[in-house]
C-alpha cells in the first residue's frame, strides 16, 4: 500500500506543477479577458476574471485544456464540464454554448485552445494503424477525457514557445505532433480517430456540415445533403444527430442565428437586414428563434452585449 501511494503522489504533484507553470505563462501572455491568438500557430489563450452567462458560439475542431477554473459546454441538452482534470475535444464544427462557472479576479479562468489538424491526425493514424471497430463508431463529436501528465507535459512545451517565438517555427510542430499523438492514444482517442477515417461515418457527417456551413442562407435540401455525404437521407439524419445532438435543420438554424448576431454586433447591421441576409423570410420568426437561443430579442441582446463589452 505504501508503494502505491508513493507512485501516485509524485504524479499528482507533477500535474500541479505543470498547471501552475501553464497558468503563469498564460497570464503573462494575455492583455486581459477574452480569447487571444498567440505567436505560436494553432495556439490561442483564454482568460476570464468572472463567471459568465451561457454564450452560444461556433466551435471549430480543437482541444481545450483548462489550467485554472472551470467551464461548461452545452451541446443541445447535453452538458460537458471541463477543468484542470479533464480536457475537451471538439472534432467537428459545432454550435455550442460555453459558460465559465469558476473564475475570480484573483484566480481567473485560464485555458489553452489548440487547433486540431486533420492532416496531422491522418498522418499519425497511418503510423498507428488499428482502425476503429465498427461498434465504436458514431459517437458525439465532442467529448471529455482525463488530462494526463504526458499530455500536459507536451502542452507545457508548446506554451513555453510563447516566450521564444523565434523557435516556434521549428519546435511548435514537434510539440503539436506529440499533443495530437497523446490525444489519439488517450482513453477516448478513438473518437478523434473517427474524424479522419477515410469515408467513415464521421467523415461523411463532416462533409454534410461543411455544405451547411457554406450554404447556410439557402433552403436546406436533405436529398442534396445526403448525396454529398454519400448516405441515404434516413442514415444521414441518424448519424448527424448522433454526432451533433441535433438534426441538420436545427444545425442550420443555429448557424444562421450565430451569423446574424455577428452581423449586428460587429458590422452594426439592423436586425431586419441581418435576418434577411442569413435566409429568414419572416422577421417575426427570426426574432422568436433568436430570443429562444440568446435569451433576449435581437436589439436588446445586442445592446446588452455592447454595454458589457461582450
From TrEMBL:
Pfam families: AraC_N, HTH_18. Keywords: Transcription, Transcription regulation. Residues 206-304 form the HTH araC/xylS-type domain. InterPro entries: Homeodomain-like_sf, HTH_AraC, Tscrpt_reg_HTH_AraC_N. PANTHER family: ARAC-FAMILY TRANSCRIPTIONAL REGULATOR, TRANSCRIPTIONAL REGULATORY PROTEIN. This is AraC family transcriptional regulator N-terminal domain-containing protein. It comes from Lysobacter cavernae. The lineage of its organism: Bacteria, Pseudomonadati, Pseudomonadota, Gammaproteobacteria, Lysobacterales.
Amino acid at each position: 500500500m505504501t508503494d502505491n501511494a508513493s507512485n501516485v503522489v509524485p504524479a499528482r504533484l507533477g500535474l500541479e506543477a505543470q498547471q501552475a507553470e501553464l497558468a503563469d505563462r498564460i497570464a503573462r501572455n494575455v492583455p486581459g479577458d477574452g480569447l487571444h491568438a498567440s505567436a505560436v500557430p494553432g495556439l490561442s489563450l483564454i482568460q476570464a476574471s468572472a463567471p459568465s452567462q451561457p454564450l452560444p458560439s461556433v466551435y471549430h475542431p480543437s482541444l481545450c485544456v483548462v489550467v485554472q477554473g472551470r467551464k461548461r459546454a452545452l451541446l443541445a441538452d447535453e452538458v460537458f464540464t471541463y477543468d484542470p482534470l479533464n480536457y475537451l475535444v471538439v472534432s467537428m464544427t459545432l454550435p455550442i454554448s460555453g459558460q465559465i462557472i469558476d473564475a475570480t479576479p484573483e484566480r481567473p479562468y485560464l485555458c489553452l485552445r489548440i487547433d486540431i489538424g486533420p492532416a496531422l491526425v491522418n498522418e499519425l493514424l497511418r503510423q498507428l494503424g488499428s482502425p476503429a471497430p465498427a461498434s465504436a463508431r458514431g459517437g458525439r463529436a465532442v467529448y471529455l477525457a482525463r488530462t494526463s501528465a504526458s499530455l500536459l507535459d507536451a502542452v507545457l512545451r508548446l506554451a513555453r514557445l510563447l516566450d521564444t517565438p523565434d523557435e516556434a517555427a521549428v519546435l511548435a510542430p514537434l510539440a503539436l505532433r506529440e499533443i495530437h499523438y497523446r490525444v489519439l492514444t488517450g482513453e477516448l482517442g478513438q473518437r478523434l480517430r473517427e474524424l479522419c477515417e477515410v469515408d467513415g461515418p464521421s467523415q461523411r457527417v463532416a462533409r454534410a456540415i461543411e455544405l451547411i456551413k457554406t450554404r447556410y442562407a439557402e433552403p436546406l435540401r436533405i436529398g442534396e445533403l445526403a448525396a454529398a455525404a454519400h448516405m441515404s437521407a434516413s442514415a444521414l439524419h441518424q448519424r448527424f444527430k448522433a454526432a451533433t445532438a441535433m438534426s441538420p435543420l436545427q444545425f442550420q438554424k443555429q448557424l444562421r442565428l450565430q451569423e446574424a448576431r455577428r452581423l449586428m454586433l460587429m458590422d452594426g447591421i439592423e436586425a431586419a437586414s441581418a435576418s434577411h441576409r442569413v435566409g429568414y423570410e419572416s422577421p417575426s420568426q427570426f426574432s422568436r428563434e433568436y430570443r429562444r437561443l440568446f435569451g433576449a430579442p435581437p436589439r436588446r441582446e445586442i445592446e446588452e452585449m455592447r454595454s458589457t463589452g461582450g
